[in-house]
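Exercise: predict the structure of this protein bound to fructose -6-phosphate.
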Amino acid sequence: MCGIIGYIGQQPATPFLMQGLNRLEYRGYDSSGIAVRNGSLEIHKCIGKINDLESILPDSIEGTTGIAHTRWATHGGVTDANAHPHCSENGKIALVHNGIIENARSLRTRLEKEGIHLKSETDSEALVHLIDRELSNGAKPLTAVRRTLKKARGTWGLCVVFEDHDMIICARNGSPLVIGIGDGENWIASDTLPLQSYTQQVILLDDGDLAVVTSDGIQTSRFDGRSTDSTVTTLEDDWGEADIGDFPHFMLKEIHEQPEALRQCISGRLVLKDGNSRLGGLGISPKKLQKIPHVRLLGCGTSLHACQVGRIAIEHLARVPALAHVSSEFRHNNPVIETNALHFAVSQSGETADTLAAVKEIQLKGGDVRGVINVVGSTIARQCGHGCYIHSGPEQAVASTKAFTNMVAALSMFAIQIGRARNLSQVRGKELVRAFKKIPEKIEHYLKNQGPIQEAVDCIKDAKSVLFLGRGVSAPVAREGALKLMEIAYIPCLAYPAGEMKHGPIALLEEGSPVVVIAPNDSLKEKTISSIHECRARGAKIILIHEEGDSIAEEADISIPVPSTESILSPMLTVVPLQLIAYETALQLGCDVDRPRNLAKSVTVE
Ligand code: F6R
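Solution:
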């Protein structure tokens, strides 16, 4: 969703801002803009891509202080006027804002009554006029921002620049902001990705923080005026390249990065001699693992599907009841929280508002939540305190791929760990660990021998809808395949546990209907074959993901083999052809693969 980048220093700000905006593109946006302090405040903004903004910029903008924004419309349509930055009537203050001001309507009405002409329909614009009013009444910039925020209700990550003061004031409440520390220069951004090529030293603002950032100083304080000592965090070197390299799209790059991403995730965590795995960051002793009455996993979209795989792995290997929950529903159902139970919040971005809200609900009721997160230092990771990073490296395509594999890996490692603390034998543990360690090379092997993906694409690209079926651990994989195809190729997709097909979705089938079936060589395979027969009897075309060398291939119209592994670990392999089918179909249909319409990478509103 919306992104922020700011720069203050000795060098021209605009190149930093434009580069930052390019790095923020992955979050999803529909307009962008910059404000640079160049004598007066120079503001340029427009709807469309960053290239469109670039095309309306003058050849050079001199200033060394500026802020910029990518907007994903919430309050007000996609228009130039609604794009950020917003500025005060006298043009002396400009503001960019992520989040939602819930009482914007009443603030706007009051301002209008005072004769202020609001130029946009946004909630954010009200803030800049309120700051202006405070300044006109004699307040200093920080006080003006603080007093304004006291009148606002909602969430914000915001930056303000002033014609008359060489500083950027930023504030965080519910929408992340990171300050990157340089030598005689500083940056501000809504996530660490745009900062990583400039500095590894950052301050992660907390909710309720404000900061006055100048070229040679950063002063942080709390909402109530207390000054704070800010902790400087050193960013870990991300193993992954944030640049697209030789790939045509980030999604394809990220699909191909899965073997390496998985190696990063499992490295040092799988212990063959004990037949165990060790997720040290969870901070849970074997004694505690033995007493956990149940595990609940929370996530959205792809992360939810990873939770559903994890749930099955935990029950299967540890014989502990486990449930996967849709984060956005969780807190609204007044959940009963068992304080001895373990909860996992699973999120690539670590910023998903629905999952964050669920975490807070659990904590409010005394529950214990651990994060399974990709982005280091993200809000959910910090809110949970303990957890396990999945180390996928930067994931920039909106459609999540390598994060899914690594979430499944992390949760499967946890399943082994809790299993070993309970009844899973060392012998069985060793078999699993041995198989686990081979998965990266098996994904590599598959990526070199992808099978008839194009044939599958030809079969589904003009379909009215596509049905995905799987059983057991493959049922969430089917859901993930359906989500991928739907979100980037805009084809309506349904995913069902194969046995449910005859209870309703079978009505959709007619001559030529494509049905994608995920059927690894597990104990459920025979039952899945019955579902395949039911589909074929109605003329459906079967695209079958199965294990290499398995005679089930004969049941398929299009057979896509993947290397075999322990069936509980198979989702890390069977999902890969589904990702490729979605990618190639979207490409063939001329869709914007990396930035599908209406979607955002980091969904920071509930
Ligand atoms: C699908 C996709 C989304 C995200 C969901 C949760 O490809 O990317 O469904 O999985 O928005 O995002 P995170 O994992 O950042 O919480």
